[in-house]
Amino acid sequence: MDKPLNQIIQNKVADFTFVGQKNIKVVDEVYEEDSYWKQLFKRIAKNKGSVFGFIMITLIAFMALLGPVISGYDFDEQIAGHESMAPRIPVLENLGVFDGSETLKTSTGELVVNKYETIEGGEEVYHWFGTDVLGRDLFTRTWIGTRISLYIALVAVIVDVFIGMSYGMISGYYGGKVDNIMQRSVEVLNGIPNLVVVTLLIIVLKPGLMSITLAIAITGWIGMSRVSRASMLKLKESEYVLAARTMGAKDISIMYKDILPNIFSQLLIMSMFSIPSAIFTEAFLAFVGIGIPVPMASLGSLISENFKSLTTHFYMIVPPVLVLALLMLSFNLLADGLRDALDPTMKEV
Amino acid sequence: MKKYILKRIGMSVATLLVIVLVLFILMQLLPGSPFNDERLSIEQQQVLMSKYGLDDSVPVQFFRYVKNMLTGDFGKSYTISKNTDVSLLLQNRLPTSLLLGGLSILLGSVAGLLLGVAAALKHNSLLDSMATFFSVIGVSIPSYVFALGLSYLFGFQLSWLPMLYNADDGLRAFALPAVALSMTVMATVARFTRTEMIEVLNSDYMQLVESKGVSGIQLIFKHALRNASISIITILGPLVVSLMTGSLVVEKIFSIPGIGQLMVQAIQSNDYNVILALAFVYSALYIFVMLAVDILYGVLDPRIRLAKEGANG
Amino acid sequence: MKEKVLEVRDLAITFNTSAGKVKAVRGVDLDLYKGETVAIVGESGSGKSVTTKAIMGILSNNGTIDSGEIHYTFEKEGEEVTENLLNFSKKQMRKTINGKHIAMIFQDPMTSLDPTMSIGNQIIEGMRTHYKTKKKIAQAKAIKLLELVGITDPKSRMKNYPHQLSGGMRQRIVIAIALACDPDVLICDEPTTALDVTIQAKILELIQDIQKKIGISVIYITHDLGVVAKVAEYVNVMYAGKIVEKGTVDDIFYEPKHPYTWGLLLAMPDLETNTEKLVSIPGNPPNMSHDIVGDPFYPRNKYALHIDKEIEPPLIAVSETHSAATWLLSEHGPEYSLPTELQARITRMKEEAKHYAAG
Ligand SMILES: Nc1ncnc2c1ncn2[C@@H]1O[C@H](COP(=O)(O)OP(=O)(O)OP(=O)(O)O)[C@@H](O)[C@H]1O
Ligand SMILES: [Mg+2]
């Protein structure tokens, strides 16, 4: 024993007596003081990516709601004389950026023009993201288009919850023949590339929001059905489910009342992973020319429309591309963060 | 193993048959086929019907259709190139698209694998964070956004590489589109490789291997990557799908004369025979890749390769 | 004089986790002598595996060694040298120590073999890496090793893959792998815990046999004191990242000093006590991510003193071989007597031992 310890002990001689079992803690020490949700929230908040994703999604959703209202233009309003105007933003224009001027490449060299100076009353006109070749305000159209992407995100989650979860849970719960048939069917469906399913569907139906929704409904749920089947297989042998069964509970009630509440939050988080691919499907369809019909706008159709002016008016394609990329990135980051917070060992769907 | 492969082949054939059935039904339903043309008199229609065997029973028609599809007889194009055999249209375009797709997969997988392995080995380091960051971006941003960016920057602004496809440029013509398409592949492969490698590196058997005194390249390639690769190859299927989708748009952007561009044209001009033919080609291609992946999986994983016949098929 | 092979001093290891720092090992001393077996006993999570992984240099990346030394004496190019293994880089460890001098057997044979490599190749890999042994020669030795660990038809087993073998067979393979390069120290991390009871005994026998045959030094980790009595000469009882009692087998079984050891002894089934009377230690080990003040065993200790709440007891020597970390041994400690149940148990054990010695 070293000296200091010895000295301390000398002063504590009186403490060398039995406590008398008052110290015994048979109950486990509660390590985690917070509730499940609070812990989850804390872990999510620690993940910078998911926080960024969440803030961006909120911001984009906010702009999608408010943007078209505050711009002062209608999304399908073609203003004569306002065609192909570069972005002009108050305040920033004084700094020499976004002042409405653009550089045109011509055969003789480069030429700086500012359409706001040439049109009548142009002094007072502001198009924050510019206008397209038909003279429609791109700020308004971008945020209107964002609404479609957000709607698609919602559809993706709903499809996952209603079709994917139910399919997987039923398949997993009944097992045996039912499971076998259901899984083979999924395998066949999965053997057809989405691209084919979606295009075939759209050429049969009329292009439009309804068809896109249907396309996502048909292709989007397979991943979720796998995850929920796996969760179901894990839980269906658990004691409380067996107990419920011996009490004579109906299958449907066991599935939805006893099992689903235990896995729902996890599955909901996993459904976040299908959002980016759904948004991408819509954008893809629009680019191929079978998306939302004009004059409606979606991010995909805006990119596709403005792609034609890529070399002449580059600014037109930037806002929809940027919003689309940010939205997809944010959903991916948020989904990653949520999954890591929930269960770091879980893999992607 | 034999049983496993047979089962996979059976599954593939079944899937292909289902697809052909769907295409067959669609062909009957779609408006605009010559047989639905209202300008033709009943007699004319009759002649056409018997000429094309449409008065045969439905199963007979279906099996003829299956035969036609498998022998590459996809009928004629209505609008894109009037009365040309669709197979003729495909003939020149398919190799171009396959080359583009192959290049992108190769480029993306090699880069992704390296990035993923490096990130896993230096888990929780700056390199790891950066790799993770780039792969999230790569997975999130559709390949055509990359295509637009690359085309604008290197093709238009800097004029380093051709902005539009020209067969005379040889492989140079594929540079930008292949890089654009490979971004998603790279990001996906990197992400997946990283996760798998981290899991394998933390597994019990890797500790035993290390405690034998094995290290370095031998440790990574003979044990870690070999085990990780069993799961890594399974993402090849989904990757091929996303590559197909991506190629439609990327071929349009760079105006590459491949089947993707043809598909876009066909969709926009309602050339149904071409659409159906391409749907078949895409599906067959995908099913083939999936089958190859499954077989490769079996070869790599001794648990499947050595499975007793009848058990664990 | 016995030759010391391995000497661990004041080893402390911390893990960085998302929930904060986990002090898994908090100053461990350990001695291993040539040809002998030392056991480490303790409940799950007490830091047994972490300690031995540090010796092997296979700590996971989030672990750091805060302090300590691991002196290992071995033959290097014909000369006897003693080196601090903590000064070795990972690469040096793999090249010079792992497999060649110190080998390890892990807890779960179901997961400790590489599923994609044949048994034969896994056994010869060590020899091929360290000594560049010719494949034919290595294979011949592998077959001998398989015979040694009791695998029938070793030649055809060489081509098998792990999934084709049972748990007991796999553990035998792992032992063969560990012995492939003739190490002088073998670390067995609960080698029988994951196996069926009947197979447990066989594997245990096998390890003892091998030790007798080749005179290897063994560190044997277990949470079962019953096993300890069979295999070890020395025992280290570990609790919450520290050794709380150490001594010869006789010291620990016949004159246990630490209340935790008493608990372990009482929890050990024997022929006379029926299972209903088995008392497990109340409560759970402490959460190592919290700072520990005083004796970590305090909240579970029926013999706790007031001082335990404030100051963690150091190891106090009882005899040359025996020491325990409890204030009961301090000069100021109160009078106490062993639990009667335990006293009865010890008497019984002593009689049994005499009986064996006589028979
Ligand atoms: N890589 C790691 N990261 C974080 N904590 C770890 C890590 N490895 C071990 N620990 C912690 O260190 C402590 C000791 O673990 P260790 O594996 O040594 O226990 P053990 O005594 O071997 O138990 P068992 O009998 O269950 O094998 C545990 O609390 C464990 O949670
Ligand atoms: Mg352990």
**Which strand-content bin applies to the residues of chain A?**
under 5%
Task: Tell me what the CATH architecture of the largest domain in chain B is.
Answer: Orthogonal Bundle
In CATH, the homologous superfamily of chain A goes by the name MetI-like
Distinct ligands: adenosine-5'-triphosphate, magnesium ion
What proportion of the residues of chain B is helical, as a percent range? Answer: over 70%
Cα shape of chain B? flat
Q: Give the low-pLDDT segments of chain A.
A: none
The structural class of chain B is mainly alpha
The overall average pLDDT of chain A, rounded, is 83
The assigned structural class of chain A equals mainly alpha
Subcellular location (chain A): Cell membrane
Transmembrane segments (chain A): 51-70, 148-174, 209-227, 267-294, 314-335
Membrane topology (chain A): Multi-pass membrane protein
Main location (chain A): membrane
Summary, kept brief:
Chain C: This is Oligopeptide transport system ATP-binding protein. The complex is a heterotrimer of chains A (349), B (313) and C (359). Chain A is mainly alpha-helical.
Q: How are the SSEs ordered, and which strands pair?
A:
The complex is a heterotrimer of chains A (349), B (313) and C (359).
Chain A: H1 3-11, H2 36-46, H3 48-70, E1 101-106, E2 109-114, H4 115-118, H5 138-174, H6 176-190, H7 194-204, H8 209-219, H9 222-235, H10 239-246, H11 251-271, H12 274-288, H13 299-307, H14 318-342
Antiparallel strand pairs in A: 1-2
Chain B: H1 2-29, H2 42-51, H3 58-70, H4 86-121, H5 126-140, H6 143-157, H7 172-201, H8 204-211, H9 216-232, H10 236-253, H11 259-268, H12 272-300, H13 302-305
Helix pairs in contact in B: 1-3, 1-12, 4-5, 4-7, 4-10, 5-7, 6-7, 6-10, 7-9, 7-10, 10-11, 10-12, 11-12
Chain C: E1 4-17, E2 20-33, E3 37-41, H1 48-56, E4 63-76, E5 79-84, H2 90-97, E6 102-105, H3 119-131, H4 135-148, H5 154-157, H6 167-179, E7 185-189, H7 197-214, E8 217-222, H8 225-231, E9 234-239, E10 242-248, H9 249-254, H10 259-266, E11 316-317, E12 323-324, H11 340-358
Parallel strand pairs in C: 3-8, 3-9, 6-7, 7-8
Antiparallel strand pairs in C: 1-2, 1-4, 4-5, 9-10, 10-12, 11-12
Bound molecules: adenosine-5'-triphosphate and magnesium ion.
The site of adenosine-5'-triphosphate has 17 residues of chain C, from strand 1, strand 2 and helix 1.
